[in-house]
Amino acid sequence: MQTSALALVFLGTIGALYFRPFGARDWQIAGAGALTAWVIGPLGLSHGIETIGDSANIVTFFLGLMLLAAGAESAGLYARAALLLRGRTGTRARVATVLVLGTLITAVLSNDATPLVLTPAIFAAGVVYSRATTDSAMAATFTADGASLLLPVSNPVNLLFFERFEMGFGQYLQTITPAALAGIAAMALVTWRRTPAVPVAAEDEAPPVRLAARGTVAPALVVVLGLAVAYVWAGLAEVPLGIITLGGGAALYAAARAAGPIEFATYRKHVAPGILVFVASLLLLVENLVAAGVLDRLADVLTSFEGRPGLLTVLGCAAIAAVLANLMNNWPSALLLAATIASAPGEHDALVAGALIGSTIGANFTMVGSLSTVFWLSLARQYGASYTAGNYARMAFAPTLAAMVAACFVAALLVWRPTGGCDSGSRSRWSPDWGMPTRVPAA
């Protein structure tokens, strides 16, 4: 009875996030779902509080990301990116510039920051419906998720798995980052090659002043470079990455302030406390599902891939993760997968790699797969662009599939070991932490 009730609560919460009954906001829906699951679920008061406390680093990371996005806008990084794009007179050159900038921004500031920085710049550089603008806009959202596997801080989903399975920064760089690089190369190649090699027509150029440059961006660039170094240091020293991100947001605020007066409306626009409630609430909801055994069937499906050829294991899990991400958005689906994999005993290196690939790169297939795509679409519509779900899916399919396959091939070579699998009874080097309940295998 409890299992069925919790399953209904989860499905009802996901459905409500799509339809928003009575105009409810995302954080209100997630909070209501989490509280209901907490009341009827098996975690209890103390374990539920512990679960919320364990999410502190991820919640801090999200807060830091919002501050970084606001600081990037206030410091004039949008304007400088627009000027750089306007200097590229060819359509392919403009797309290539977006791909390079998007990868760099995603690596350091996360995939959610990439559309916030690049989308206004792209529409400031050209008229809305020109081929150069359309292709550049698509390239921006593709690279936001396509490059978001690169580092633990490049996507909140990465940090979730990074912490849950105690990967270690060095291990992430040795196994996941090479797969991410392969995915980035494949995605960029497909996106660039299908872009026509034609000059940007004079009538397609935007008016000279659409996004004015503000002050000097040198202090902001110094902060961004310093943040990249700090991430590497923190990862190796096992310092919580959420604290580093929050510090980076504060430093970027100081850099923006040094360039001139700050419009606090920019910070009010980007910093939304409701997102923090949303993140912690979904985590609490999913952990109740795990404790009640609701996810046992999914765990059986996932672990059935283990012990098979490495590529099949990684591809199978990546495909499941991609489907879930595009059905319910990649944050709740990643929570579901991380909790499910952690609930089963044994080694899960290949499953973790596949889940990461499908939850990050694979979230690109549809408009609802990733929060960064939702940000991008909202900004594009503010500038008068109109991209339908069908048009987006058609444009995204080839680069996303190429990136997923390339990343899976490399990940399979690096993480799969023939002696692995849940039947071995040993723990993975990415062993689940947080003291969450694990399934007890049948005797």
User: What portion of the residues fall into strands of 2 or more residues?
Assistant: under 5%
Low-confidence stretches: 209-213, 418-429, 431-443
Large-scale geometry: globular
Number of separate structural domains:
1
Please trace the helix and strand order, writing H or E for each element. HHHHHHHHHHHHHHHHHHHH
- The helix count comes to 20
Gap between N and C termini: 23 Å
Helix content: over 70%
- Our Rg estimate from Cα atoms comes to 21 Å
Mean pLDDT: 82
Secondary structure layout:
Blueprint: H1 2-19, H2 26-40, H3 44-54, H4 56-74, H5 77-86, H6 91-109, H7 113-125, H8 131-146, H9 156-164, H10 169-193, H11 218-237, H12 241-258, H13 264-270, H14 273-292, H15 296-303, H16 310-328, H17 330-342, H18 349-360, H19 371-382, H20 389-415
Helix pairs in contact: 1-2, 1-14, 2-14, 4-12, 4-13, 4-14, 5-6, 5-7, 6-7, 6-8, 6-10, 7-8, 7-19, 8-10, 8-19, 9-17, 10-20, 11-12, 14-17, 16-17, 16-18, 16-20, 17-18, 18-20
How would you characterize the overall build of this protein?
- This protein is mainly α and 443 residues long.
- It has one domain (2-153, 169-424).
- Helix content is 70%, strand content 0%.
- α10 crosses α20 (389-415) and α17 runs antiparallel to α18.
- The longest helix has 27 residues, at 389-415.
